[in-house]
Amino acid sequence: MSATFSPTAVTDLKDIQDVERLMGRIKEARAAVGEVIFGQEAVVDEVLVTLLAGGHALLIGLPGLAKTKLVQTLGTVVGLRDKRVQFTPDLMPADILGSEVLEEDAAGQRGFRFLPGPVFCQLLMADEINRASPRTQSALLQAMQEHRVSVAGHYHDLPAPFHVLATQNPIEQEGTYPLPEAQLDRFLMQVDVGYPDEAAERRMLAATTGVHQPEARAVMTPAELQAAQALVRRVPVGDSVVDAILSLVRAGRPESSPLPEVRDWVAWGPGPRASQALTLAVRARALLDGRFAPSIEDVIALAHPILRHRMALSFGARADGVTLGRVVDRLIDKIA
Fold this sequence. Notes:
CATH superfamily of the largest domain: P-loop containing nucleotide triphosphate hydrolases
Largest sheet: 5 strands, parallel
Number of strands: 13
Helix content: 40-55%
Oligomer: single chain
Strand content: 15-25%
InterPro entries: ATPase_AAA-3, CbbQ/NirQ/NorQ/GpvN, ChlI/MoxR_AAA_lid, P-loop_NTPase
Structural class: alpha/beta
CATH architecture of the largest domain: 3-Layer(aba) Sandwich
Domain ATPase AAA-3: 56-189
Domain ChlI/MoxR AAA lid: 266-328
Strand order of the largest sheet: 3-6-9-2-10
Keywords: ATP-binding, Nucleotide-binding
Protein name: ATPase associated with various cellular activities, AAA_3
C-alpha cells in the first residue's frame, strides 16, 4: 500500500515503540471512561477520536443520557482543565471570552486589565449551546478555529490543548437558536447520543444507586494527549483511503455529485473541511483500535458523524421525509 500525506510517517523502531506506548495509554483512557459511562461505547469512541484528532464535538441527545457526565469524565481521565458554561438566552459574549476592566493602582495610574473568561481552559463544555443568541454562539467561532480570542483589539492565546464539547437537546426547540452553518462546520463530529441497551442500563442501576458510585480517575496527562495528537498526523494514509474520502465528500455536493438523488435531495453539501476532518479522524480511529494505518472501513464508520452536520436537505426532500442519514448511506454505498 502506497502512503499519502506521510513525509514523517512512523518508520523506525523508536517510532513504533512510541506508538505502542501511546496506544496503550489511549486504551487505558477508554477503559477508564467505560467505568463511569455505561452503554455508550460508540459515543465514547467517537469523542475520543475527536480529541485525538485535535477537534471539537457536538453531542446531541435527550436529557439524562450522561452527556454532561461524559464531558466531565473525559476531562478527569485525560487530565484536562475543564470548565462548563450553561448557555442561556441572556448569556453575553463577554461571559465566555472575558472582558477588560478599568483599574487604578496605588500610584493613581489607571489602566485596563483583562479578566479571562471560562473559555480559557483546555476542555470547555458548552452546555445546551443552541439556547444562547447567535451573537453569543459566534463568540466561540474564533476560539474553535484559531485557538485564540480577540477582546478590545488584543489577541489572547488559549491554553493548549483546547477542545470544545458542546451539547444540544434535539426535542426542546422553543427558545433556541439553530447553530449557523459556519459554526457547525467547526465541529469535527456531530455525535448522536442514544439510549443504552438493557444490559448496560442494568449495570448502570447497580453501579450508580448504591453507597459507592464509580468515579473517574486520571489516566493520561495533557502532554500525553498532545503527543498522541502529533502522532495522529504522522500515521500514513493509503491512496485507496484518500480516494474513498474524496469520493465520499465530493459526491455529497449537489453541484458535482454523480448521484441523482443527491442532486435532488441536498441543498448544500460538505466543504473541504469535511475531507480534512475525515483524514484526521480515520487516523485517530486506527490508533484507538491499535492499528498503524487506517482503512476504508474507518471512512465508512466515521462518515455519519462527520458529514451529517455539514449538509442540508432541500425543501422537497424534507417534504418527502428524506433524512440526512439516508443521504449519507447512499454516499457510503458509493465507496463500500
